[in-house]
Design brief:
Helices cover 44% and strands 7% of the residues. The protein has 194 residues and is mainly alpha-helical. Helix 1 packs antiparallel against helix 2 (41-71). Keywords: Membrane, Transmembrane, Transmembrane helix.
Length: 194
């Protein structure tokens, strides 16, 4: 997958799902039909275990690609209470972030290519639902439907995006590596931050 090569290929169809399915099918056929293939049960079960492990690996790789693509338009919601804020007299907590490297610049470049617009543009149905909610927010007959579509309920497939200014994919390019707390020394503020 992408970890072997210098240039990542995360904006593509996750074809690893196909090979994962083939591995799982091979494992199932070895377990169910080992007698038909004239394979000793011990060898069949060992082969099925190897196929299953390889299928799990390929499935995880595909899920990583799919999760990256999903995060380009929809970042996970980040919330914290005031009690979770770091209490320090030397540092100020700015939020969560990641160290920007060349790979992140490459991911941004790839995302902004015209052929990859489908990965950073919200789907038509999602845009239509958001427009519908906006146009009918004061409609009494559709009040329950609009309230549901405008909620963050787990059954709502068209949840509103978090209030995040700018391009969400700028934040998403660092998600595979994970984020960490960004702290600023209070001595460097010098009236530049409220």
């Amino acid at each position: 997958m992408s970890q072997i090569y210098e240039h990542e290929a995360l904006l593509r169809d996750p074809f690893e799902y196909v090979s994962a399915t083939a591995y799982f099918a091979g494992a199932a056929s070895l377990v169910i039909g080992s007698e038909l293939a004239f394979v000793v049960p011990v060898i069949a079960y060992t082969g099925a275990a190897v196929f299953t492990l390889r299928g799990i690996q390929r499935f995880r790789q595909a899920r990583k690609v799919r999760q990256y693509q999903k995060n380009l338009t929809r970042l996970p919601i980040y919330k914290m209470s005031s009690s979770q804020l770091a209490k320090s007299y030397k540092k100020q907590f700015l939020g969560m972030g990641f160290t920007w490297t060349a790979i992140h610049a490459q991911r941004i470049y790839d995302a902004e290519l015209p052929r990859n617009e489908k990965y950073i543009r919200l789907p038509k149905l999602y845009r239509w639902v958001r427009k519908f909610v906006y146009q009918n927010e004061n409609n009494r007959r559709l009040k329950l439907l609009v309230k549901f579509l405008d909620s963050d309920h787990f059954l709502n497939p068209w949840k509103p995006l978090p209030d995040l200014e700018g391009k969400s994919y700028l934040h998403a390019v660092g998600m595979p590596e994970g984020e960490e707390k960004i702290l600023q020394p209070l001595s460097t503020r010098v009236a530049h931050t409220l």
